[in-house]
Amino acid sequence: MGDNVLIRTRKFMSNRLLFRRQMVVDILHPGRCVLSLKDIRERLAKTYKTSPDMVFAFGFRTHFGGGKSTGFALVYDSLDHAKKFEPRYRLIRVKWVAGRHPQRQKVEERTQKQGEEDSWHETEKEEDGKLMCAAAFPD
Q: Biased-composition ranges for Basic and acidic residues (predicted)?
């Protein structure tokens, strides 16, 4: 984490219904690339005196020309509330929930099966010496 990186928060709001604090985060990083989300979470956790597990940072966009990025952060009061209110895809990103990735063999079998179902128009019938599409003349 570089010394010349400054993190500011604005539009701070304490959301008691969802047991969290939410804010817009501005990161000033002149002359270097954007901080990783892990570093952002650690710095925000230190600022708000909590553990990095309860900080969710997302939606960061770098401004044109670089040097400044803006995103959003949520700091939950407890892990239970975070698991209850955070969407599943964000829990997968922080590795709290295992994502579902089907095995490659099952994906291949599914595509083969779909290919067999879609190939019905390739079967042809012969009528009066001409090859015709089976879809044109159903049994």
A: 105-130
